[in-house]
Each structure stands twice: as structure tokens, then as C-alpha cells.
């Protein structure tokens, strides 16, 4: 395994596509969002690239007994009524600081191959508490990109995200800027405790406005409903066990829920 | 010391051998299993390769006052009545994420040198508690391999192993798939607290069925008996000291027991 | 992104300049000091270099909604009445041990390009408690440099800094010595708990004496005043809440204060 | 700074010298021992090499206000009545696993340059408690070396050192074996809590027998006396403060004592 191995799975002609990144992060908002688009636009999608790397965790995931080596997948989506898309999804980010740079450059290489010069990195911004309203906070890599996003309902706040944006999402903006990409990061507010389908929906509604496609949200809303049941039960248990320590559900617990 | 140094210790002609990996992991199941095969088939075995690497921990083990630099050993076994074997054993895994990829590729290189195209990675899957029945849970890198293993008694479970398979065992499946190997991981159930000879035996019984060799289990059963004595004593002490904190025996303690 | 990418932003002719380093460290003393010089001598300053690297944390900072990739900036300052300066500032240090060596060599390369052969690394030495008097402790990379600094009021103490000097400041002295630079590290005493503008002022007053420039300290003194208000409030709260645990303000809290 | 930079400080002709390593480790036994030999044989010693590396911690130590970049020093000692020596001393070991391999190979390169083919790695083996008798435990990289060491009073124990020998000392045996060196590790028993001059003396007395030089031990005995005063005071304080938590002195505290 070299530092990077990119499998060419298929070739698809796209017209000025937009790269949309949804790797795991806060509340898994970005991942949920991109996976939902893939689900809804399955008929127009094709897996085009798989990226393997020594920079990914050395492991395989198992699905129905069959292993799959850690990788990031890129799908080409020819959207009939809107912008063409390149969707970037996976279960893991790089495991070292330098690895994030290596992988982000690889993703930008692939984006250039397909003629993309715009990108959206999707993620979550943690509020630290359960919320009812889901704003979408933004960051861009050039100030000319601020206004169109504000028009689409994205909020730009002085103190958020605190500490900047870390990982692939941040580097897609930073390295993207050096390589001529117009890039924005859209972050749905989320508690940070749970996988959050409502936050993912808020982010997708902004994208719909910007990229002119339409999505059905039934399956995401179903998951949101399940999430609310879980939250309700947790709150009940908390009240019953005020003296006992209550662990916040871990990502592993939530994998079975969400 | 280069990234990899492979010592050619001997050359042996094998006929379509199967690589069997037994590096340390959960319950030391894989290591116990492979070391037992080596013990039982000593007359038919020859050490063929030693793999040294900067990726191994920088240390030597001491045996009767004499040092041995950390390495992985490969033995060629010409099994008269069954499949020829390449046995991979050692005391340590790589110490970095990238190191696991480097070492696994080296093991596959050696396997290809000897004409192998099939492999079994042996390990344990932790149950978190002491058990009486020892199922063997499986994962494969191609779905065509599911049925023969199911016929041999291997169980394929939806939620296990949780989080996939990490380390050399997982990468032997993942990188093996990219390099044309048919690979399976056999994981004996084990508490995860102890070196577990019974779990190793369960895994070996599956291998015997698949690879048509026969093993005597007397020495493994002896160790299992010693393990049960230890467990019995621990349970007694736990009952006596219910108010005191009871440390689970560490791997270091168990080195003297097992 | 290569190991190092140095953007040439502008070219400026300097006359035997002195490199002054102010990367984040104890009490952010060095950073505050260099940022203050940049503010005061803005009219004579020009950004000449930006250093990007895989060795920096993989993140972007956000300012008014627009991202900026982690980097170190070098400014050329043509000081009318004193020594020309090369100011080195940034928000992050390297994230690995080897990375510190790589980046420090890059900074020395740039210094050589501009004809510099002297440098000052600015930082803080923690006292562990709030103080009223601010001594400046020193270290040099050649003993011939001791006397001029002592004459300028720098103190050389046997046991300080305990454990030597770690990171870019230390390596500017160590690697600087091997590459022919006269280098000194000036460390203002500081509690270590807070961003400390008074400590930064103490260090700058020594530099003014050595490099013959003059600075106005109004804005630094304002920040020092704000810091004293904060300290006063914290001490009040401590007295009120003697039974409760009092967290020392973190760097993040202080970012909003200082 | 490259991965390795070796400064040639002087050239000295030695006759079949023995390399003796004393880098920091358990109880600083090896370092104390080698530094004592350097002190006692100062007239016959010359600094021949300094080894710098990105693998060392990125820091400088300060002595009388002047900085020194982290390095390992090699001294050539022409011992009139005994074997010639190459003494290896320093304040730090490598900071990564791979770094230990890189540095040990560099030390063996230098040893070969000077015609050495034998080496002793000096260290401590922790007993976990204060002791009165100081045995010297050994390990060798070839069994032919066992007898001469046993004759010199070295003990070879089955279970010690538990877990093998980690770091440069272990690799000098392991890599030394692959490169044709006869190597032994001599480890003085020590509590592991303190810098231990008595343990260093025990190790040196074995070396004296093996290498036919003679040392005066007055300064080491003085330090041992100081250490006993410190231990006495600590034991008094422990008795007085049975209810209070007593921190074991850290290496930093001991730097001022020892």
C-alpha cells in the first residue's frame, strides 16, 4: 500500500460539477447529509473512485461477513435539474496531522480531474445542548462567496466555529484556496452528543437552494423521529436516576440507533 | 535497519500453501493457536524467513540470558496428509498505523514467493465475560468464501466483530483482497481477560476441518486446565474481597501463568 | 502540500536585519511582543513570506467568515532609526518533534535570504504565581553574547529555564549556532496562567535598548489593564467560592479576554 | 537538520576499543556510570563525535546561560593499562520508535569506524523498593558471552528483565548481533525511584574486572552519601505525614540533588 492508491472504478463525464464532502465529524452531520443525497439520487449516481491510504486506520469494516478495507469513496452524480455533483463519503478520516494534508490534496486532485472548481464541506458545529432550531453556520475561502451564501440562509458568526475548522473540511477550504477552488463549509448546529438527522436536513436545504436539486426527506425525518424517541427516553432515565452517573451515549451506542 | 529487512533463513518448496497468521491480539488466541501447530508439527516445520523492521517496537526479548531482536517469523510446514502451511508468528505488532500496512504487505510478499493464494488470520473476539461454549466467528474478503466456512462450523454474525477488524488480521483480508488472495479471519470467542487456550482449540478444530491436518490437543488442554485453576482462585478471591478493588490480571501477570 | 511550501509575497531590501521570533508559547509573551511591534511599525512593514507545511496542524482559522490556512508569516520592517527587522509570527507551532526541526531550518533559510545573521527568540518563563516585577531571563548560543545582554538588563540565572528551551525558540538557538547565527532567547517572567502584556512589554523594552527602535506602549498597557481587571475578578470569585473547584482560565477563555 | 548529522570533532587512533553506552534510563545508572568513567579518565579522553538528529527532542539545554542543542557525544579513551574505550553519553534518547533504530545504527557506524567489535550497554533494572545489596543483572547477544560475564560476577536471571530490554540498550544488542558485534547489557539493580550512584558503582566494578582499568570511586561514593541523606529525610517525612500524600521525587527534583 503506497501513501495513496486511487482505484479508477468508472469514468463519467460531468459538467462543471460541485464537490460535496461528507466525512465523519461532529454529530456525523456531513456524513448523514451526503449519504442521504446518495440514497435519494441513487439512479443518477455512479461510484467513480476509491481512495486507499496508509494514512487511514489499518482496519477493515465487515458487512454481512465480508470485509472492506478502509477507504474514501467518490460518486459522480448527473443531476437532471441541477448542478452535477461529486460526492465524497467514508467512515474514517486520516489518523495523523500530515495525513490530513495528503488526503485532502488527493481529493482535490480527483475534483480537478472531473473539472470541478467549487466545493462544499459539510459538517456540524456543536452547541453543547439539545436544540429546537437548526441554523446553518458558514465559512468560505474567499470573501466574494459570502453574499450568495447569506442569501441562501447561511449565518456567518464572529465567534464560530471557535478554534477554526479542523481536519479535511478545514483543509478543503485552505488547500482549495491555494489551488483555485471556491470553497465553503456549511455546518449545521447540533448538540454534539448524537448523530443528528435534523441538522443534516438543515444543511441539505441550504444546498438545495444553492445547487438547484430537490430531495425528499422522508427517510431522514424517520431517523429524526427515532432520535427524538431516544432523547425522550434518555431524559426520562436522567430524571429517574438523578443520583446516578449517566453516561452520554457513545458513538458506538449510536451506531445501532442512527 | 531499513523500513524492512527480511532474512532468508532457508528455502523450502511448498505446494499451494495456506498462510496462517497468529500475531498477538485479543486473548492471544491466534498466537496460541499457531504456536500450538508449530509445536505439534515440529518435525515437518522449517523456519524460512525472519522479518525485522523499524516499525516494530525498539526492543529485544531475553531468553536464557540471550537477546533476540523483535521480529516476525515465518515457518514452512510440509504437512503429509493435508495442505502445506506457512505459519506467521511473533511477539509484537507494528507500533504505528502506517506500520501495519507496511508489515502486512511484506507478509503478503512472502506468501506470494511461496506460491500461496489463500490465508487465514486467527484471533479472538471478546465477549467481556467468562464463557463455557466457544463459537468461532468469521469474516471473509469475498462472499464466495462464506459457504465453505459455514459448513465447517464458522458463525457469521451481523454485529460482530463490532468496529470491524483492526491491525494485521484486518489488513490481511483488506490488502489480501486487492492482491488476489482468498482470505478469512477466524476469531474464537474469549472473555478478553485471559490468554485463552480453549478458544485457540476451537479455532484450530475449524482449521483442521478446512485444511485436513490432525492435531493432538494434550498440551493445549493442560494449559486450559491451568487457566481454569487460575480462574477458580480469582473467583474465590473476588468473593472474599467484595469491598476491595480487584484488578483484572494484566498481560504481564498472565505471561507467567499462560 | 509538500513538507514545506514558502510563498514569496513580496521582496524587500533590508540592511543586516535582525530576525525576531514570536510564535505561541508560555503566556503568549513572544507572540504578543512581536504582534505589538508589527502594530506600532505598520507603516514600515511589509509581509514578505508565508510558510505552509504538513507539519502544522491541519486546520484553518476563520476571520469574518473567511478561512486562512495555518501558516507562519514573515514581515520585513525597515526601521528608520534602528536595526532593520524580520518579524516571524503565527498561531501555531509544529505538531511533531521532527516538524520543529524542519520549520526552524526553513525560518533560518529565509533569514539567510534577507542577509540576517542575528536573531532573538522571544518567550516567557513561568513563575507559577502572579508577579509584580517582570525580569527578563536570557539564554544565548555563544558566550560572547552574554555581556551586551547583561548590560541591557537581561538576567542569566543558573536554574532557569529549568529543562532548557523547547520548540522553535530553542532550536533557533541550537540550529542557529550550527548555521552561523548569533542568537539569544529573551524570556519575560510570567505566571504562565494568562496571556501577559506586561511581560511582553518587559521583553520589548530590552529589545528597544538593543536594537535602537522606539515603541509606544499605550495599546499593550490597555490590555494589561484589562488583564488586571480579570485577575481581580478571579481573585474575588476564588474568595467567594473557597469550597468550589476553580478552573484556571484556559487559553480559549483568554482568547476572548486578551 | 537531516535525519542524522554527525560532527567529526577529532580523530583518535584506538586499538580494538570497546563501546560503552550510558544514555538515560532506569535510575540513570548507565549515565552516571559512563559520566564517572569520563571524569576519572579525563586526561586520557577526547571528544571525537557529536550526533545530532531530528529524532532527538527539539530543545536546547542551558549551561551558564549558553545553549547546547540536544545531541549524543562520543569520547575516545586511550586507557594505559586496560582496553581502549569509546564512551557514549547524552541527556536524551530518541523520541519515536523508528528513531531508536536510526540512532542505534548511527552509534554502531561510529563504533565500526573506530574498529570496535565489542560493546557494553549500561543500565538499571528496577526492583521497586530500596535495596542494600546491588547485584548486576546481565543479557548478551550470543551465548558464548555468558560464561566470561558470569565469572565476572554478573547474574543471569530467568525472569529479568521482565519485558526484555527497550530502547538504545536493547537495540545495541539486537542490531549489534546482526552487524557482527559481541554485545552485553549490564544492569545494576536499583529501586527505580532515584538516581542511584551505588548501582552505577556496582556496574563499574564489573566493567573494571572485564576491561582491566581501575577507577577511584570517591566522587560516586560522595553522591551515594548525599542520596542516603535524602532517602533518610524522605523516610522521616513519610512517617510524620502518614495521612498526607507523599510524592516520590521526580527526575526533575533529583536533577538538583544528584
Automatic annotation (TrEMBL), chains A, B, C, D:
Keyword Translocase listed: no
Record-level GO cellular component terms: proteasome complex
Protein's recorded name: Proteasome assembly chaperone family protein
UniProt KW keywords: Proteasome
Positions of the UniProt region annotated as Disordered: 237-258
Low complexity biased stretches: 237-246
UniProt KW 4Fe-4S keyword: no
Database matches in SUPFAM superfamilies: Cgl1923-like (SSF159659)
Species in which this protein is naturally found: Natrarchaeobius chitinivorans
Superkingdom, taxonomy of origin: Archaea
Amino acid at each position: 500500500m503506497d501513501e495513496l492508491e486511487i482505484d479508477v472504478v468508472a469514468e463519467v463525464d460531468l459538467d462543471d460539477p460541485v464537490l460535496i464532502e461528507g466525512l465523519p465529524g461532529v454529530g456525523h452531520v456531513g456524513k448523514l447529509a451526503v449519504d442521504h443525497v446518495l440514497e435519494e439520487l441513487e439512479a443518477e449516481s455512479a461510484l467513480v473512485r476509491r481512495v486507499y491510504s496508509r494514512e487511514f486506520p489499518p482496519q477493515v469494516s465487515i458487512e454481512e461477513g465480508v470485509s472492506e478495507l478502509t477507504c474514501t469513496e467518490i460518486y459522480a452524480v448527473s443531476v437532471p435539474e441541477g448542478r452535477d455533483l461529486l460526492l465524497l463519503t467514508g467512515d474514517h478520516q486520516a489518523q495523523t496531522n500530515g495525513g490530513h494534508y495528503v488526503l485532502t490534496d488527493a481529493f482535490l486532485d480527483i475534483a480537478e480531474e472531473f473539472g470541478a472548481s467549487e466545493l462544499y464541506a459539510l459538517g456540524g458545529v456543536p452547541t453543547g445542548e439539545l436544540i429546537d432550531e437548526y441554523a446553518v453556520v458558514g465559512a468560505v475561502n474567499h470573501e466574494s462567496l459570502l453574499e450568495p451564501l447569506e442569501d441562501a440562509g447561511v449565518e456567518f458568526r464572529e465567534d464560530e466555529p471557535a478554534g477554526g475548522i479542523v481536519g479535511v473540511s478545514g483543509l478543503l477550504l485552505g488547500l482549495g484556496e491555494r489551488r483555485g477552488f471556491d470553497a465553503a463549509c456549511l455546518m449545521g448546529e447540533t448538540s454534539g452528543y448524537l448523530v443528528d438527522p435534523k441538522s443534516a436536513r438543515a444543511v441539505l436545504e441550504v444546498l438545495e437552494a444553492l445547487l438547484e436539486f430537490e430531495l425528499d426527506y422522508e427517510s431522514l425525518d424517520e431517523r429524526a423521529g427515532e432520535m427524538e424517541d431516544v432523547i425522550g427516553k434518555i431524559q426520562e432515565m436522567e430524571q429517574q436516576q438523578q443520583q446516578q452517573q449517566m453516561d452520554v451515549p457513545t458513538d458506538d451506542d449510536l451506531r445501532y440507533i442512527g
